[in-house]
Amino acid sequence: MHFWQQACGYAFKAGLSRIRNRVIARVFRELGLMEEWGSGYRRVTDSCTRAGYPVPEWQEVGPSLRVTIFPHPEAREQLIDVPVNVPVNERQAWFIEQLRNGRNCKSSELAAQWQISGKTAKRDIADLKKKGLITFIGAPKTGKYVLAE
């Protein structure tokens, strides 16, 4: 990132406004939809923080502004990228999410998390392998489960 891009980013976050579309800015101002210049970043960031959302990612891309708003952590836990035609139970969905987040999860952790027997945990994992959603790589004692490609 160039020095001037960093400087613009800091100025933006400090509340120094730069009108990107004068027509839209004027219309919003006349309609009373704009409260004050330079307050958007702070207000959006504060609102997200108060509601428990991660702070959005802000990027100036040429004359445009790109804002990425991330899902609430509680909702994110429910986002599982499993094909709709492959049914999985809640425990299996949790196991897949652990792998997606980079954790080296084993059947013993699945059993402890859901307070189920080791046999049930192994059966859940075997079912995920059978459905082609996960694979095991490495030696039996030192290997790990990974998401199937």
Structure description:
The chain is of the alpha+beta class and 149 residues long. The chain is built from seven helices and four strands. Strands 1-2 form a two-stranded antiparallel ribbon. It has a two-stranded antiparallel ribbon with strand order 3-4. Helix 6 (107-114) crosses helix 7. It is elongated. The two termini are 33 Å apart.
A few lines on this structure:
It contains 7 helices and 4 strands; from the N terminus they run H-H-H-E-E-H-H-H-H-E-E. The chain is α+β, with helices and mostly antiparallel strands. 8% of the residues are buried.
Based on CA inertia axes, which overall geometry fits? elongated
Q: Mind telling me the C-alpha Rg?
A: 23 Å
The structural class is alpha+beta
Helix content: 40-55%
Query: What are the secondary-structure elements, in order, as H or E?
Result: HHHEEHHHHEE
The helix count comes to 7
State the distance separating the first and last CA atoms.
33 Å
Largest β sheet strand count, sense and barrel closure: 2 strands, antiparallel
Poorly predicted parts = 1-9
Which helices and strands occur, and which strands form pairs?
Blueprint: H1 3-13, H2 22-30, H3 40-51, E1 57-61, E2 64-68, H4 73-76, H5 90-100, H6 107-114, H7 118-130, E3 134-137, E4 144-147
Antiparallel strand pairs: 1-2, 3-4
Helix pairs in contact: 6-7
